[in-house]
Amino acid sequence: MHDISIISMIFTAALALICLFLILSPLFKWDEYLHVNAKGQDLASTKEALLTTLNEIEFEYKMDKISHGDYKNLKKQYETEVASIMKEEEQIVESSVDKELMAEVEKEIEAQMKSYKNKKGEGK
């Protein structure tokens, strides 16, 4: 009977440790997820705000509320900021895409296109 209690204690301890691990493990990975996801969301919201501002500037120019020179300067400034954000978003996407996988997908697409052209040529 003494053997059964030791085995049940070890089993209970192992079960408790597994449960504790399963409960706490997502918390350690959560910080990395939040950092990457928040950066992407910040870029998207900033880009959206800049595009909205560009639309407002254009509207105000058409309503003759701002001069042509101010309109050109503001438009150029905001378009430059939007372009830099778009480049940064593109770099984030490129870094997350597996290059080998993309090359393989492109090869498959080319092979499908060739077979489609061959089939289309045979039907003529």
Nutshell version of this structure?
The chain has 124 residues and is mainly α. 92% of the residues lie in helices and 0% in strands. The protein is built from three helices and no strands.
The largest sheet, given as strand count, sense and whether it forms a barrel, is: none
β-strand number: 0
Number of helices: 3
Structural class: mainly alpha
Query: How would you sum up the global shape?
Result: flat
Uncertain segments of ≥5 residues (pLDDT<50)? none
Topology:
Blueprint: H1 2-62, H2 68-96, H3 99-122
Helix pairs in contact: 1-2
Give a verbal description of the structure.
Keywords: Coiled coil, Membrane, Transmembrane, Transmembrane helix. This protein has about 120 residues and is mostly helical. The chain has a domain at about 30-95. Helices cover about 90% and strands about 0% of the residues. Helix 1 (about 1-60) packs antiparallel against helix 2 (about 70-95). The radius of gyration is 29 Å and the shape is flat. The model has no long low-confidence stretch (mean pLDDT about 80).
